[in-house]
């Protein structure tokens, strides 16, 4: 009986340690008004891989969202919500960038399977996630936290989303930025044939 009690106590200690560990392992989030940390990495667009840096988007508002893992249900839901609202983002002059610790091949598969029209960034060494307080959101698995930053045209953070609902987050950002009604311009109808 004594051994069972000791075993249960040890199990309870392990469970509590695992439950509170993410809180202690997380870096502090950046705050609105701070300058977004600069970074350079590779970005994946479709099957292409190209170098990029945050400075490449100077003069544009950037939505930089961190997510745990390609092809998981919440991350797929979030990416597809950004995809579905992408025309509104681009019409409002907003750039969408997704970032996780996944590999280039995983990003390419994720983009292809879900027809994602925006780039995904490589961060295998977690330098970007660490700079933005997104690293070690799930320490046991080594995955990032689900966080989004909105960075203005001059590189200043103007909005931080520390708690994200993957299914509503994309429209939440559009609403917050006053861009929910930014519909793409109507397509011109084809010209009628000219009769002689």
Structural write-up:
It contains 6 helices and 7 strands; from the N terminus they run αβββααβαβαββα. The chain has 196 residues and is α/β, with parallel strands linked by helices. It has a single domain, classed as Glutaredoxin, CATH 3.40.30.10. The chain has a 7-stranded mixed beta sheet. Strand 6 and strand 7 form a beta hairpin. The protein is globular, with a radius of gyration of 21 Å.
CATH superfamily: Glutaredoxin
Strand order of the largest sheet: 2-1-5-4-3-6-7
CATH class: Alpha Beta
The value of Rg in angstroms is 21 Å
CATH topology, what is it called? Answer: Glutaredoxin
| Share in helix | 25-40%
- Biggest sheet character: 7 strands, mixed
What is this structure, in a nutshell?
This protein has 196 residues and is α/β, with parallel strands linked by helices. The protein has helices spanning 2-25, 73-84, 86-91, 104-114, 127-131, 169-176; strands spanning 40-45, 48-53, 61-66, 94-100, 120-122, 147-151, 157-161.
Task: Write a concise keyword list for the protein shown above.
single chain; 196 residues; alpha/beta; Glutaredoxin; 7-stranded mixed β-sheet; 7 strands; 34% helix; globular; disordered C terminus
């Amino acid at each position: 009986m004594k051994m069972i009690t000791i075993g249960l106590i040890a199990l309870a200690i392990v469970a509590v340690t695992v439950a509170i560990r993410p809180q202690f392992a997380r870096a502090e989030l950046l705050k609105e008004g701070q300058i977004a940390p600069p970074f350079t990495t590779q970005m994946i667009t479709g099957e292409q891989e190209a170098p990029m840096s945050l400075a490449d988007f100077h003069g544009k508002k950037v939505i930089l969202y961190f997510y745990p893992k390609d092809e998981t249900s919440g991350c797929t839901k979030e990416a597809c919500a950004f995809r579905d609202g992408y025309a509104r983002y681009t019409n409002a002059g907003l750039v969408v960038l997704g970032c996780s610790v996944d590999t280039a091949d995983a990003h390419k598969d994720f983009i292809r399977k879900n027809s994602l029209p925006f780039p995904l960034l490589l961060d295998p060494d977690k330098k970007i996630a660490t700079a933005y307080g997104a690293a070690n959101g799930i320490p046991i698995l080594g995955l990032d936290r689900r966080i989004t930053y909105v960075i203005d045209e001059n590189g200043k953070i103007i909005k931080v989303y520390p708690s994200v609902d993957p299914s509503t987050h994309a429209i939440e950002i559009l609403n917050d930025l006053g861009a929910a009604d930014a519909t793409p311009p109507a397509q011109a109808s084809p010209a009628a044939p000219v009769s002689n």
